[in-house]
Amino acid sequence: MSEIERNERVYKAIIKTIKDTPLAEYYTSGHRTCQGCESALLMRYMAKAAGPRTIVVGATGCMYVANTTYMTTSWVVPWVHTQLGGSGAAALGTAAALRALMRKGKIKEEPINVVVFCGDLGCADMGLSGVSNAMTYDYNFLIILYDNESSANTDIQETSMTPYGAQTSFSRPGKQKRIMKRRWKKSVVPMIIAGHRNVKYAATLTPAYPLDGINKVRKALSVGGPTFIHSLDPCPKGWDYDPMYSHKLGQLAVETGIWPLYEYYNGEIIYNEPTKGIVEGRIKRKPVNEYLEKQGRFSHFTEEDIEYFQKMVDEMYEKWEIPGIMPIKSINVKIKES
Ligand SMILES: Cc1ncc(C[n+]2csc(CCOP(=O)(O)OP(=O)(O)O)c2C)c(N)n1
Ligand code: SF4
Ligand SMILES: [Mg+2]
């Protein structure tokens, strides 16, 4: 596909207002996710955005277990389960099988979306090498990392995507040590775009911004090739808050600058509002504590912890070469002539 054709497809895929979103649902009732589960909402948006000619592949995790319990399912489109670290291989295998079947004339030649979802443990930790491998091929699929910042299905254990200091069942604050999770959260989209030249589209989203999210799924599927989306999904059970605040927390994650919204398309970064406004200096970032104080998992934080968190987020916007995204800088290294 030429760049012009690709741009035209993307332009046609974009939905202008929320009223224009398709009414049909392909992820419906019958799931057993918690009240206020933003990952379930992500599934609903993703299925709506992709439409009926879609195969969904899901790695083990809440979105597998809660959506397919006791022979019931909320999926209306074909859905297949793959093992926890298997999302990359499953994406590649499904897309390759479709291409082979069409080439051999066994099924009609037509665009069929392959959307693969995996959690933060499944995608960003355990399955990362498989995802990276898949991203080096030229098959058409979209991998969505749904990030609830813990291994939620097995009772909220720490992953590399759990934020600094957050309480999980593996990182309980104690009398001797208050902060048990000292690692800073990994940035997955930058890793994907910096290391995989085949990837023409990647993005971040959070379900609190529905149209932004639906359009990102539609753009990724229109661009073709291996594409990647990372969604930050507030999880009432793991983050310990009243389910009615799920959307609010998604918004605050963006408004405080902790979770920047952006797209990578054809070699360029496009910031989305309100992150665009933050980077351009039109919108002031809210203090991180407005986000942290609303969640029980940070209730042990002292002033010192909040200050440290704020400093780390400030750095992303004040010191990084690509604000909020990458700290990389190029320098001229002089090679000594012998
Ligand atoms: C190889 C393997 N190890 C451990 C498990 C047990 N297990 C099932 S779901 C899960 C947590 C997955 O976490 P994540 O990918 O973040 O998805 P979430 O449950 O948070 O939705 C674990 C550890 C498993 N199914 N397979
Ligand atoms: S534990 Fe979290 S991710 Fe899992 S179903 Fe409940 S709200 Fe959703
Ligand atoms: Mg998880």
What does this structure look like?
With 338 residues, the chain is an alpha/beta fold. The chain has one domain (3-318): Thiamin diphosphate (ThDP)-binding fold, Pyr/PP domains (Rossmann fold), CATH 3.40.50. Helices cover 36% and strands 13% of the residues. It is built from 13 helices and eight strands. The protein has helices at residues 3-13, 38-50, 62-65, 87-103, 120-126, 128-134, 188-195, 210-223, 236-239, 246-255, 275-280, 289-292, 303-318, and strands at 54-59, 79-82, 113-119, 141-147, 201-205, 226-232, 262-265, 268-271. It has an eight-stranded mixed sheet, sandwiched between helices. Strand 5 (201-205), helix 8 and strand 6 (226-232) form a beta-alpha-beta unit. Helix 1 (3-13) runs antiparallel to helix 8, helix 2 packs across helix 8 and helix 4 (87-103) runs parallel beside helix 6 (128-134). The longest helix is centred in the first third of the chain and has 17 residues, at 87-103. It is globular, with a radius of gyration of 20 Å. The termini are far apart. The mean pLDDT is 95. The protein binds thiamine diphosphate, iron/sulfur cluster and magnesium ion. Residues 61, 119-121, 148, 150-152 line the site of magnesium ion (MG). Magnesium ion binds next to helix 5.
